[in-house]
Design a protein that fits this description.
- The structure is a homotetramer.
- Helix content of chain A is about 70%, strand content about 0%.
- By secondary structure, chain A is mainly alpha-helical.
- In chain A, helix 1 packs across helix 6, helix 4 runs parallel beside helix 7 and helix 7 packs across helix 8.
- In chain A, about 40% of the residues are buried.
- Chains C and D meet through helix 5, helix 8 and helix 9 of C and helix 5, helix 8 and helix 9 of D.
- Chain B binds a DNA duplex through helix 3.
Chain lengths: ~200, ~200, ~200, ~200
Amino acid sequence: MARPAVKKGRMEAAAIELFATQGLARTTVRDIAAAAGVGEGALYRHWAGKNEMASTLFRREVHAFVEALRPFLEDAGPPLARRVDAAVRFIYDFYEAQPTRLAFILFTQHGFPDQHVLDDALDPFTMLLAFCQREMRNGTIPPADAEVLASLVMGSVLQPLIMHRYGRVARPPAAIAADVAAGITALLLGGTAREVGA
Amino acid sequence: MARPAVKKGRMEAAAIELFATQGLARTTVRDIAAAAGVGEGALYRHWAGKNEMASTLFRREVHAFVEALRPFLEDAGPPLARRVDAAVRFIYDFYEAQPTRLAFILFTQHGFPDQHVLDDALDPFTMLLAFCQREMRNGTIPPADAEVLASLVMGSVLQPLIMHRYGRVARPPAAIAADVAAGITALLLGGTAREVGA
Amino acid sequence: MARPAVKKGRMEAAAIELFATQGLARTTVRDIAAAAGVGEGALYRHWAGKNEMASTLFRREVHAFVEALRPFLEDAGPPLARRVDAAVRFIYDFYEAQPTRLAFILFTQHGFPDQHVLDDALDPFTMLLAFCQREMRNGTIPPADAEVLASLVMGSVLQPLIMHRYGRVARPPAAIAADVAAGITALLLGGTAREVGA
Amino acid sequence: MARPAVKKGRMEAAAIELFATQGLARTTVRDIAAAAGVGEGALYRHWAGKNEMASTLFRREVHAFVEALRPFLEDAGPPLARRVDAAVRFIYDFYEAQPTRLAFILFTQHGFPDQHVLDDALDPFTMLLAFCQREMRNGTIPPADAEVLASLVMGSVLQPLIMHRYGRVARPPAAIAADVAAGITALLLGGTAREVGA
DNA sequence: CATGAATGAGCCTTCATTCAT
DNA sequence: GATGAATGAAGGCTCATTCAT
């Protein structure tokens, strides 16, 4: 192709920005086109429609994010705490560098018309689940319901970002990453062992 | 006296169900009316419009939930682990008893046109924050950034419910409550103390 | 009937006020009921519906007005100028005493769904036409196209009231009645005699 | 370039026709679209909504009419009677040529939600007022309350057209223009001088 | 009888999508 | 290829009217 699709990139950036900020339903095709400095019809040259564009972008962004995160979770070398810290730090730095890109990943899922936008293969939760199962097998963390544990970890990673975005956590993500990582490590180690009756 | 407003309750139930299931934007007034077995105009006798109905219901549900949860967080008697367990158990039982009611609380917030549907007074996060600060003052848990800690706890409570709703956590909420509570206790106790560099 | 229909009167007054002020289409049944301090259903006890109420009131008001005005136009005694003056003065005093009542008559006609709310018998224009024809027969005013002449007179009576209502004529109706009457007399006497080519 | 907005003109014509015939409130967007042979949404590409369309068209039509009429009222050359005759003739010819266009101007004003659709600059009454004041200064007509006189003239011009439209004046406007002009001249000359007490 | 809850047709408007230019 | 005028199916909402209480 002679000309690179420079407008496509502008539309993608504009769409991600708007989807992350206002949600899928409240972002119109005209909004996207205007923000990208492009005609309304241009969208249909690259995507089948607004929803298809959104889910394509969503899948792509999630995939890129998951792949970037994978090494942190699969590297078995350093001690657990250090690996968790590196992973959380990566995520929170990613957020600071491109807030709307991660916000798009965080906030958009609920809004899709069809339930299963992501196949399990590139789902962050799947990766997190595999991580937990592996660590249990390795004896790094005590045995537990991996699904529950992965959920706890996931919630612990995301919620501080969400609360920051809502202005309820004052310190910036990069500054709290270490705290969050420490908490998650405690979760993984002390985990779901039942000591309630103590 | 005129006819009693017998259909208001039916609309509330139908609306909560639909908002929780499909989100605000994708639930139409017609949907609500049909699900409630009511004419479309009936909504406007009791609320100013769809959005006002949603935020009124949302505030009411959150308020009821927060007030029901408060005793569990304010009671200072039993040891921490036991109190956390009771609180989580309450929440997860609540979910099993009325899934859509809690799902409505969980999923709806992002979708509101105006940012601040809740005043801080009846915000669950505010209550959780106060809980963390109190426990730190009492020396029950080690000092830490309370906002971050409250976020971690909140995420840990909610995410397992969310993943269950998405079918990614197999066991029912009531069955995993103890595990979740144990994890949160570990979080609170081992907390965000930095032992990463160890 | 035991109780006099006191509420009917309140509804009539409220309706006339609102119709005159906001027009037929923009006045709702609920507006009328609220202004009359009455339930919405009450209207249907006395009239078949909003439109029927409006046209009934309109006919009644026009009829009352026409009948009150009739003596001034049919009395053949005094000189023309004096009779015109008395008639205009009556109309303008009527307006000052009950502005909305006359405004209702003036402004409402265009808004009716069906063209012919009034039968010619109680139409003000019919009466004015008869007046002009009679005066011509009597030789009081020079012969002319009576329909045109009556239109000129009618416009000359109404427009100053309209412009006053729009705030474009500063002096109050009672104060300008004499001027208006003088103008109309000039119209009737000098009339439509063609002196253009002079 | 994109498709040229060929249907805008068709909508304008249809809207003016319908507004003039049935009034603002009783003309629906569907009516306009159907009469123009156009989809309903087309309206919103060119105007913000039905009301904005109506007031824009109204202003435009009034402006065009006022500007076309202005030379007749500002030319100070010929004797008054001749100038009045020319002006009335112009208006009545205008009506015969494009009845709905003038009817739109005549009938629509009352129906607007907001009071001041026109700024005084392009208001016909303002122009008429200036005309009367100028003639008084020039001594062409006797001194009088200009606001009242302008109202009388305005009513005398419009009412015959209104009555014709209602079928109460048989002869067509062009045929009665001379009579109307003669009446108005009498009004201006004999004016509002008080000779009532004679 | 009065009330006002309830109805539902119909209104204005939005917006994803198509397609003439 | 790109544009944006045009479409038309919904959507939220209004309001005259009905009728259970």
